[in-house]
């Protein structure tokens, strides 16, 4: 299957499969999982891929999903970006700056 990097990622977040998975997952995990580990109960805002799709993570696996609040997701994104910039993770050359979950 031919995949164009970046494009596919954006398209994926608009698919019925993802929407269904996301709705199911957030129902099972209605609280931010990172905050919960820190003893805080915060409503989850989105379902995040633990290993990002562009890094080879499973798209529709509960093992690769976690509920996050806005704050934790922003933190994770910032850390991932730093890692990319420092060359730990190779970025997709044409990854769009948009927010696919909005
Ligand atoms: Zn959180």
Primary descriptors:
mainly alpha; 39% helix; 8% strand; binds zinc ion
Helices and strands, in N-to-C order? HHHEEH
Radius of gyration: 14 Å
Shape: flat
Average pLDDT metric: 85
Within the largest sheet, what's the order of strands? 1-2
Spans of at least 5 consecutive residues with low confidence = none
Question: Which small molecules are bound?
Answer: zinc ion
Per DSSP, the total helix count is 4
Spatial separation of the terminal alpha carbons:
27 Å
Largest sheet: 2 strands, antiparallel
How many strands in all? 2
Q: How many domains, as an integer?
A: 1
Helix content: 25-40%
Tell me the strand percentage band.
5-15%
Structure classification: mainly alpha
Description of the structure:
With 102 residues, this protein is mainly α. The protein contains 4 helices and 2 strands; from the N terminus they run αααββα. A two-stranded antiparallel ribbon has the order 1-2. The site of zinc ion has 8 residues, from helix 3 and helix 4.
Short structural description:
This protein is mostly helical and 102 residues long. 39% of the residues lie in helices and 8% in strands.
What's the arrangement of secondary structure elements?
Layout (H helix, E strand, L loop, with lengths): L6 H6 L3 H13 L4 H5 L8 E4 L15 E4 L1 H16 L17
Antiparallel strand pairs: 1-2
The structure holds zinc ion (ZN).
Zinc ion binds next to α3 and α4.
């Amino acid at each position: 299957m031919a995949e164009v990097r970046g494009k596919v990622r954006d398209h994926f977040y608009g698919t019925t499969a993802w929407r269904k998975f996301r709705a199911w997952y957030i129902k099972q995990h209605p609280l931010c999982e990172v905050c919960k580990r820190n003893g805080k109960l915060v409503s989850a805002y989105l379902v995040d891929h633990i290993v990002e799709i562009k890094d080879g993570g499973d798209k529709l696996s509960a093992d690769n999903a976690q509920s996050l609040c806005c704050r934790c997701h922003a933190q994770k994104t910032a850390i991932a970006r730093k890692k990319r910039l420092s060359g730990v993770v190779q970025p997709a050359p044409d990854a769009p700056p948009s927010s696919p979950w909005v």
